[in-house]
Specification:
Shape of chain A: globular
Structural class of chain A: alpha/beta
Number of strands of chain B: 14
Mean pLDDT of chain A: 97
Largest sheet of chain B: 10 strands, mixed
Strand content of chain B: 15-25%
Distance between the termini of chain B: 34 Å
Low-confidence stretches of chain A: none
Strand content of chain A: 15-25%
Largest interface: A-B, 61 and 60 residues
Shape of chain B: globular
CATH architecture of the largest domain in chain B: 3-Layer(aba) Sandwich
Radius of gyration of chain A: 19 Å
CATH topology of chain A: Glutaconate Coenzyme A-transferase
Helix content of chain B: 25-40%
Number of domains of chain B: 2
CATH class of the largest domain in chain B: Alpha Beta
CATH architecture of chain A: 3-Layer(aba) Sandwich
Number of helices of chain B: 8
Number of domains of chain A: 1
Order of helices and strands of chain A: HEHEEHEEHEHEEEEEHEHEHHHH
Low-confidence stretches of chain B: none
Radius of gyration of chain B: 18 Å
Oligomer: heterodimer
Helix content of chain A: 25-40%
Chain lengths: 298, 268
């Protein structure tokens, strides 16, 4: 299945989309770009650290709500389109904490309705909720230890999750190398998952090394091979993140208006395929440089 | 060995070194991006060689040669004993109660040690949106010792934060207990470029415990939205030694990613 076909089939208008990746690492940029090009509407994005792929989708005007732990690009600064959309009242934000979001995905992946966490109590994260949220939380006493309080948070099962990983086979067995963030829970909680990967390997690879499997195929609906599919963010073991392009994106996203429109026209709508986008950003020379940066590390 | 103190340092450098002094060997520390990472790696390279780090995104006990760019930088998993997930670190270590020290920061920090990293203004029509909690709320809720490194500005230290992202003592000594937090009396230490403030668990408020070299109490008050009570035994923050500065500059942050101000001073 191609990226285009997978997004056409599994991402519907109004969907809750689970976002893989975080900060400058393994963001599903290939898939996010395709969603933008197809103009899917009224989306809710959910994840832990929503990063540049979220910002692109918000900047394209596709997102009505985010449910998340944090939005930002670390030392590269804020996710400026996200920030602006909230400050201008164009988008809803439902704030949680990373562990709370992971617990919501964990409940989702185990098919139970909620889980308790020790946090959130005493914070304003509980005092505010987005207008469209029905019930955000419940504080209860531990039935086995009266007087001990916990916060219950509801399971989250996204309609479709987009991730970029190192390896997968044709049927959807997945290997995530390095830091896995919230993705094992997220993928298993989702009703459908599209996997973009650096390389498709044989199923024999998994059957010979079953302890390498991060997530088995049951949860995966489409597998796409797209080398450098997380660019300009990094994929551990394969390539580093592109400081230059991320800085350029941040400049455009911060400036907004015509600057941002120009970025989107040039780098998103103006590039037919993801490979065209890579070519435009510096092609083989740039990608080799990012690859060597990573190989020096591992 | 005789100590050779140096007065040729940038504010960020002494803030990092002072924060590192609160870390002990054998502590398990959850790292954040920025000066906390500088402080923690500095501690490991000097007085606390057996400190171990965890990073919220899933890296457990990495050996960090120098300060990485962000917590998601690929180097964050360097030589770790496990690269796992957010659940491994925030769930199975932080919430489980196995982390000794957490570093936090934010747009606002108030007299009760509450932190705001979410909104300025009414969240329903905010003046400014910040990144949000990340793992900070869990860390603030569950870790017994919280270290905050912040630049000392009046608007950063209001009497009360506009939004509690990460609870300190909320509104007084029993604030956390009333809210239901199991870790009800954590230590909270704030290191700024002017002073060190520490929570008094009996009042639930920050007190002034140390002044940076050459800084007066009045200067602190002029730049703070509340008046942290000076502790009876006020000390001056110890100057860095030449050896410490050399380690910081050459080994901890050799690319001067975090210690930008130092670089600026060198240029002018």
């Amino acid at each position: 299945m191609s990226t285009k076909e997978a997004v056409e089939k599994f991402v519907l208008d109004g969907a809750i989309i689970g976002m893989g990746g975080q900060n400058v690492a393994r963001c599903a940029v290939n898939l996010a770009r395709e969603i933008i090009k197809q103009g899917k509407k009224d989306l809710t994005l959910t994840g832990c650290n929503l990063s540049i792929h979220m910002d692109l989708m918000v900047g394209a005007g596709l997102v009505r709500k985010c449910e998340f732990g944090l939005a930002g690009l670390g030392r590269f600064g804020a996710t400026f389109q996200f920030k602006r959309a909230i400050e201008e009242g164009r988008m809803e934000a439902e704030d949680f904490d990373h562990l709370t979001m992971v617990s919501r995905f964990l409940a989702g992946e185990m098919g139970i309705p909620f889980l308790p966490v020790r946090g959130l109590m005493g914070s304003d994260i509980l005092n505010y909720q987005a207008p469209s949220t029905k019930k955000k939380f419940e504080i209860i006493n531990n039935p086995w230890n009266q007087g001990e309080k916990v916060t219950l948070v509801p399971a989250m099962q996204p309609d479709v999750t987009i991730v970029h990983v190192q390896k997968a086979d044709e049927i959807g067995n997945v290997v995530i190398q390095g830091i896995a963030s919230h993705e094992p829970e997220l993928i298993r909680a989702s009703k459908a998952t599209i996997v973009s990967c650096e390389e498709i390997v044989s199923t024999k690879f998994f059957r010979s090394n079953p302890d390498f499997t991060t997530v088995p195929y049951h949860y995966i609906d489409a597998v796409i091979e797209q080398p450098f599919g997380a660019y300009p963010t990094s994929t551990y073991g394969y390539y580093g993140f592109d400081v230059e392009h991320i800085n350029y994106y941040q400049q455009c996203a911060r400036a907004g208006g015509e600057h941002y429109k120009r970025y989107m026209n040039e780098y998103i709508y103006g590039c037919e395929t993801f490979d065209d986008f890579l070519e435009k950003c510096g092609g083989v020379k740039k990608l080799n440089q990012l690859k060597h940066e990573m190989l020096r590390l591992v | 060995m005789e100590k050779h103190y140096s007065e040729n340092y940038a504010r960020e450098e002494l803030m990092s070194i002072e924060a590192s002094r609160f870390i002990e060997s054998n502590d398990t520390v959850i790292l954040g991006t920025g000066l906390p990472m500088v402080a923690a790696i500095f501690a490991q390279k000097t007085h606390a060689p057996d400190v171990n780090f965890v990073v919220e995104s899933g890296s457990i006990d990495p050996i960090l040669p120098s300060a990485p760019f962000t917590v998601a930088d690929p180097i964050i998993g360097h030589m770790a004993v496990r690269t796992g997930s957010l659940r491994d670190v925030l769930g199975c270590l932080v919430q489980r109660g196995l982390v000794d020290i957490g570093f936090l920061g934010g747009a606002e920090i108030d007299q009760f040690g509450n932190i705001n990293s979410t909104y300025i203004g009414d969240p329903r029509s905010p003046k400014a949106r910040f990144p949000g909690s990340g793992g900070a709320n869990s860390i603030a809720s569950c870790v017994p010792k919280i270290l905050i490194i912040a630049q000392h500005e009046k608007r950063r230290f209001p009497p009360r934060v506009q939004f509690i992202t990460s609870p300190g003592y909320i509104d007084g000594p029993d604030g956390r207990k009333k809210a239901g937090l199991k870790m009800d009396r954590p230590d909270i230490i704030v290191v700024t470029d002017l002073c060190v403030m520490q929570i008094n668990p009996n009042t639930g408020r920050l007190e002034l415990t140390k002044l940076m070299p050459g800084v007066t109490i009045d200067e602190v008050y002029e730049n703070t939205g509340f008046e942290p009570k000076p502790r009876a035994k006020m000390e001056e923050v110890e100057l860095p030694t030449e050896e410490e500065l050399k380690i910081l500059r050459d080994k901890v942050d050799p690319d001067h990613i975090y210690l930008k101000e130092f670089l600026k001073q060198q240029r002018t």
